[in-house]
Amino acid sequence: MLRIETIGRVRVWTLDRPGARNAVNPALAWALFDAALAFEQDPAVDVAVLTGAGGAFCAGFDLKAASGAEGLDWIATLDPPEDWDPLTQPIPGPMGPSRLMLSKPVIAAIEGPAVAGGMELALWCDLRVMASDAQFGIFCRRWGVPLIDGGTVRLPRIVGQGRANDLILTGRPVGAEEALAMGLADRLVAPGEALNTALDLAESLTRFPQGCLRADFLSARMEPAALAAALRREWISSGMVVAEGAAGAARFAAGAGRGGRFD
Fold it and tell me: How many CA atoms lie within 13 A of 180 on its CB side?
C-alpha cells in the first residue's frame, strides 16, 4: 500500500493503491504519517520524494472509506489540541502527514490526477514536479466534502488569494501549463518523467550543506504557531458541514459521479 525505498540520501514514498487511483484510506494515512516521522528522524537521508503508482498521484481520501465506519472513526480521532505545536507535537491529519512541519524538504512527483485530498498532499510537499498531462483540482467540491488537510491554508500562500479563491470555489480542473504559470507546479516535464526529474532535483539538494539549507528552509515558511492556528481553524470550520460531507461521500460510494454525473 505504501512502498518505501532509499536511493542514496533520498527517501522515496510511493502510494500504491492503483485500483483506487491511490486514494488514501486510514491504513495508508497512518503508514504515510509514520514514514514521514521516520524520514525526519533518519540522519542518513536529506530529501524525500512522494509519488504514486500506476500513472496517478492521488485521487484524495477514499470516499468509500469516508462513507463507512472505518473512515468516520479515523476522522473522529483527529481533533488538534488547542496548545498544539507542529514542530514538537507531531499529529496526523486525515491524509496522514498533512499536519507535520518537517525540517527536511519533500518533493511531489505528480503523474495523472492530484485532486481533492491528493492536491492537499501535493501542497504539503515543498516542491512539485508535474507531468504535462497531470491535473490538479479540488474535486471534493462536487460532493460537499471540505478541505481538511491544509488546502485552505497552503494554497493561498502558494498561488495568492485570488487564484486560491478561484480553485477553492469552483473545484475546476487545473492542467499542468496553468499550474506552472500560477506557481502551483515548480517543474513541468514530459509524461512519465515526473519521478526521474524529482529524484534528480532531490539528489541535487543533498549536495548542499544541510544545516544552512534547513535553517533557511524553516525561516521561509509559515511560523509554526500560525500554521497550527490556521489548521485548527480549518478543522473547526469543517465541522460545520460534517453531514453534508458524509452525504456526498455516501453518494460517491454508491456510484454517483462516474462518467461525469454528479447529481
Answer: 12
Task: Return the axis-axis angle of helices 26-41 and 69-76, rounded to nearest 10°.
Answer: 40
CB within 8 Å of 81: residues ≥ 6 apart: 89, 91
* Cβ-Cβ contacts under 8 Å for 111 (sequence gap 6 or more): 51, 52, 55, 56, 57, 131, 134, 191, 192, 194, 195
How many whole angstroms separate alpha carbon 14 and alpha carbon 4?
A: 6
**Distance in angstroms (rounded) separating the CA atoms of residues 165 and 253:** 28
Residues 6+ positions from 86 with CB-CB distance below 8 Å? 99, 100, 101, 224, 227, 228, 231
Which residues are bridge partners to 188 per DSSP? Answer: 130
User: CA 106 to CA 35: how far, in whole Å?
Assistant: 12
Contacts 24+ apart (CB under 8 A), 88-93: 90/33, 90/37, 92/29, 92/30, 92/33, 93/29, 93/148, 93/149, 93/150, 93/231
Q: What is the pLDDT along the chain (263 residues), one digit of tens a residue?
A: 999 999 999 999 999 999 999 999 999 999 999 999 999 999 999 999 999 999 999 999 998 776 666 666 777 788 898 889 998 899 999 999 999 999 999 999 999 999 999 999 999 999 999 999 999 999 999 888 899 999 999 999 999 999 999 999 999 999 999 999 999 999 999 999 999 999 999 999 999 999 999 999 999 999 999 999 999 999 988 876 666 766 776 677 677 665 444 44
Residue 110 main-chain phi, psi, to 5 deg? -110, 115
Helices within the chain (DSSP H only): 26-41, 63-66, 69-76, 117-124, 151-159, 161-170, 176-182, 194-206, 210-219, 224-238, 242-253
